[in-house]
Amino acid sequence: VHALIQVLIDGIVLGGFYALAAQGLSLIFGIMRIVNLAHGEFLILGGLPDVDGPGIPWNRPLLALPFLILIGFAVGWLVCRVIVIPVAHRHELMPLLVTFGLAGVIQGGLTLVFTATPKLTNAAYSDSVASLFGWRVSAANGIMLIGALVLLGLLSLFVNRTKLGKAMKAVAQNRTAARIVGIGVTRVHCAAFGVGTALAFAAGGLFSTSQGFYPFMGALFTLKAFVIVVLGGGGRLGGALAAAMFIGLIESVLSGYVPEIGTSLGTAAAFILVVAVLVVRPQGISRLGVAKA
Amino acid sequence: MKPTITAAFSARMEPEPLGLRSQGARTRFLRQGLLGLGVLCLVALPLTGVNDSIVLTASTIMMWIIVASSWNFISGFTGYVDFGHGVFFGIGGYTTAILVAKSGLAFGPSVPIAALACVLFALIIGYPLLRLRGVYFSIAMLGAFLAVREIVLIATPLTGGARGITLPPEVDRKLLLLSFSGRALLAVALAWLLRRSNSAVRCSPSRTMRKVPRRAASTPRS
Asked: Is pTM beyond 0.80 here?
């Protein structure tokens, strides 16, 4: 039982991270109806500067976090403005293709610059572990969970309280009506893409201290985030959080109890789950709550 | 006709076939002629006694022709954009490699068996996945691709995990190029026939296949 609770704690920590990683994708999907296939790559981008990036207070991931969020917003806004918006009206699959290509470019670029060896950010708290009754949470993981929850709370405040956030909700609910009442839909789309990317960068920054990561992990993150969005019913914060916890628990139980191959099995399980969920719900998640980001 | 905002952004917009564009008869003739000439050159290449590296490059070109036209079959003709198409490539490769390396079958007969394995896998995942539309199909295929990749990495006794399987270099490079070329021709010819016969329209499973897009209803079709 003791070991089981440890596994569950690990699952919840992982789930908190997944919730943050998925929320950005969910936001972009809810508002723009676009699946950003480069989301995982943005996450990796957010993690890498912490390792050995110039200009950012490296070795201090928490200090770097606000910078990461700002940079992430700028990158997301630019990507949306320059490559997504121009193709978005042509075909519903065009944004998918464009971001898929972007993901490949980022992945290749990162491999070129940072090589494919796994990276881990060294933070001041990297070696410390908090323990209670013998259950252990490494400081990096604990900070990742708390950071994720705080950021999700801030996001909820942003969407529900600020003017821009409310505009995003309006655009998600009814694009044409939002345009009629004078909301600049393209502007809101770009802002939403920026916020989503900023969340991915932040998630990457938090993640980089807790686990080794490498450029090829991007697609895995994108897919896992998508699984969570689908499971959680699109847009709803609570649903996404629960789905993220579910995925985190599945992965941590599988990797805790199946020797050797458990970690890969957990990943495979997540993808089998996305296929299964999509098949059971073929109309997708579009009819479910969208505007409750 | 400029699409209205509602039509352009409607989430329920029918997917347009991506690979079909109308073009003038002369351009088409010219293009097909050039294509045929190029293919002929590639086929004749090994007979001119060039070195192995060039043969290998030509084989790779042929291979991509096959892969691209096979993608065209599902995505170009139907509008289902398949992001996990590599899964079939991988299954074919692994089936052949396992048959040759583990069960000692010759390379020749193991290739059709690998193709059958792909067909089987496509039937298994195609039945549920083709019920999905648009973005959901694409993502589900990507998911299927990544799931199979993880499973292959786990199944080390069979697949060699991340190290893979090494095959003895028994197959003649030039023969390989010839068979690549033959199959590339076959794939392209099949695509051409399918397009000509318009059976893509007739065997259309309800809504997604080559349906006249709402916005383009007035433009001529090839």
From this structure: no
